[in-house]
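anyone else get weird line breaks when pasting these?? whatever heres mine. first is seq + tokens for prot A
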Amino acid sequence: MRVYEAIVEALEDIGVDAAFGGAGENAAGLMLALDASKTIRPILAKNEQAAAFMACGYAMFSDRLGVCFATAGPGAFNLISGLCVALTDSYPLLAISGYSTVAWEGRGGLNETSGRARTPNSHMMFDACCKTDPGTGKPANYLVTDPAKLIDTLEHAVRVAFEGRPGPVHLAIAEDITARSVTVPNFRRLEVRPDPVPPDPAQLEAAGNLLEDALERGDRVCVLAGFGAIRAGAGDALRRFIERFELPLLTTMDGKGIVDEQHRLAIGIFCDSGHKAARDIWEDSDLVLAIGNSFAQHATFDFNEELFEGKQLIHVNIDPGEIDKVYRVDAGVVADAKLAITALHARLDKNVGPRPEIDYRPKDYDERFVIGLHKGLHPGRMVQAISRNLPPRGVVLTDAGAHAAWCGYYLEMRDGQNFRKPGTYGPMGIGVCGALGVKFGDPSRPVVAAVGDGSYLMMGFELMTAVAHDIPVVWVIFNDGEFKLIKLYQLSAFFDTALTEFENPDWVAYAHACGAEGYRADDEDEFEEAFRRAIASGKPTLIDARITRLALPHYSPDPEGILSALWNGIRERIGV
């Protein structure tokens, strides 16, 4: 068995059924091995960056290993953005790249990236975007030059990808060991799935005591959930927890939908594009139980130093580096979110009596109302139409841009549905391409990419990949011909704007040219009809949604709301 054949068979054994990549001479052997596989479907993207984004999507909700591959040199470097997404957003991802002949290092061979003799240094590049190997304390970036060490290295790399907080690992295969005459002498099945991280009893006791004391005193307690809780599959456990102890649930935008958003205890998202109802609950709370969130910039109103003033904080996170990183905790629990919340529930259930039902959710819940009388297609009402017509277990992905704020605010996720926006690395294009990976990770789930026109212009050629492989994703393009968030930032910071407007092609004609379905919508009725037909078609489909430029998304860099943010901005400018 040759090197790439061994890699493919090992990945088959652990349940991988898709690999996303790009063609190249140094990846030629892997391409042949994948083509011969009976269970792994190779998806050749138009660009390796898109392939890495697809691998992130594959791992996003499936709890399986995302796999991407590329040739040496520029192909490998094109994977970098996807690995950065996997690093910040906690996706288990294996990147496999070719590597030029080690015996020729320093001579300037084709695609050499040894860092010697004025060649790029791929070791440093991949070190910068791979998770840390807990065994060595170094980046999980491995160069294989000995076929006898291949399986041990592959097994170790995949274990690292899943261990603790998931993340990306990289395996570079030296061209020296890919010849037909080179074989793997010690192939075996892989053992790669470490057990979830259980809560430490002492940490659990400290957190439990703090919660019990707060509930006994009648303090106001709220729960704040992030994507870590979704990754851990903690939704049902969290719903039972808040119902038992009558606690209002807020989420970050990344935690959106962990509990059905029509649930009486699901108050909304708390962030700079969040709901007033969630902000009011936060302001009234004495203790916050934060589960699986990292207190990122837009979830903390630019790391607002007064966010926890007068509040206690219990923080549950699988990554010890997140505890005390931004805000000082009163109790920290390093554990899998599902195991931690289940253990806290069992502990409190013994000591806390029945709790009266409390109506936290206002009757005029703010997410239901779209402010604005603009003519044309309003993005808020369009997102509400997506909510009404999204099938059970549907997934909605967004990209970086104003459309993410519209979706975060107005999209209402029902039980079993999921939402995801780019994390802190925040590239444009992850939603456009990641949607293909999500769909391939679970073909039974309807997948919608609600993306800006700027994002789609960057990566929209992957529509051809969807058509070639019959991957029926629906792309809703928020078409207003401008980089909305950049324009708003320029206006607020510099009172001027430049280079933010652009022309779009005829997206319907483009869709048809690629062999996909395409619709144009200029008003809400047209959009709703197009969206229903797109979901029902079972084909890759673009919807060119011609939204009004006049509507502005809900956004406030102040936890007390937009009026407070405006007033503070005025005070800063006049020096008060």
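and prot B, same format (seq, then tokens)
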Amino acid sequence: MADAQIPSVDFFAPVGALGYYLFAILLSVFPNGHPLLLASWCLLIVTGPLIGLVVLDIQKRSRALAYTILLPFLLFSILPFNTGDFYPYPGSDGFGIYNRQVCQLLYVLAAALIYVRNPRTLAVVAAGAMIALFFVKITGAIAGVILCLMAFAAGRLGLRSAVTAALIFFGILAAIELSLGAVSAYVADILALVDVNDGILLARLLQAASLNAGLLLPAGILCLALFFSALPAYSMSMRDACRRPSIAAIRKVFDQNFLWLGAFVVAGILFESQNTGSQAFIFLYPLLLKITLDCVANGSSRRQTIAVFILAIAAALPPMTTVVQKSARAWIGAVNNIRIESRNLKTMGAVNVRPILSLRAERMRDTYLAEPGAFEALADMGELPSFLLYSDFDFQTGWLTNVDDAIDALRTYEHANGVRFDTILNIDFANPFPWLMDRHAPKRVAIGADPFRAIPPPDLEVRAAVAAVDIALVPTCPSTNVNRTLLSLYLPSLEAGHTRITLTPCYDAFVRNGLRPGETAAGS
């Protein structure tokens, strides 16, 4: 981003560009801000005004209801934690951030579709949320479309508001496409990802349902209870709509709480099927609140009211309690943590860990170096040293230390040989070196480099960009099947024009042949 590269246009990105731009804006305003917090909070630039419009409309009828909608949104937006437990040790969640952002946008959209009465406000919020969903993650936009279709069928999103929102949405898309070409490039990246991930949707749908069973079970039971309680009146509405079709009759058929809840659950499962970290199903809360309020307003029996309350609370509370609990564990448990020492990591090095994990990181690094054959053997079998290696805090600590040492080594090499590595590639999931060293990253190369899910085969432009880099780094502590696979994608572009050297005990490097003093890839 600092090179003015445009996501999807200048480099392959696994998600939309909005989060990157919002993060870059906040980083420019708060250069010493913590990257995790900036990345987590940057979406408030969009969601803040949108939820403000929603709350402003609601408070005209009920200030208490407005606060009841606003406070959970602030809880999820401010605390940088996912609702799922992916790792046993407490810590702030630095992964799945764009998934959390989608869930927060869906929360705003759901609240607007359910509670906003002003048609203009509803059109603006719906359009703003859908544009943001589209440019954060396409699966979030698909979930948003399901919510909007449900609201339109039920008459909550009127025709005029729907058309206005659609015009705003496509007008903004057209403007971005005509000025940057970013929309078509983004769609091309999405299609490439679909091709890479073809054939695993069913397994991921089941995974999403199982991971969130704690709230989906009460939500499903509530949906069935609402269906059976509404069945007599609903059957009559269906007959009336068939005998005398009209817009009002059709809307009455669709404006049923069990249909709303079913549609929201389907949207959530579809979205979560592509996630490994998220604030899953937080957007159910505005709907569950409406269901309980409707139950009271409609004069339901005491038994039915109690059942609805219990099931709604059972579905709504798990995300809130999980985020609060993880927050408390992380910050209380950090009292005895120690900060990672670094020289070159800027704000990326603002990390603290438990002393025992820091010690383990050192010991594991020594073991990687002393017993390389064991880890090569694991890589040969397609196994990682740990099933959760990339989530292990000791691995992350060691990774940061290795990057820090590599930067020292790069500067030493430059000084000793009178050269400057202007364009740097890191053959790993992330490439922090250009930002940390104020250099350049090659264009066309994929970021978020998961070779099994997020990188299509390199085309001619990618190969040319890799072949032109001044230096390409390869992490070796430890050797893994992931980095091996990633290297195999780029090695054909490096073998002819680069020489492999040992940069540090934990990094090899491909140095461009013929790199002379004062020469860079940009000027060669």
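btw re prot B: Residues 302-333 form the longest helix (32 residues). Residues 20 and 377 are 38 Å apart (CA to CA).
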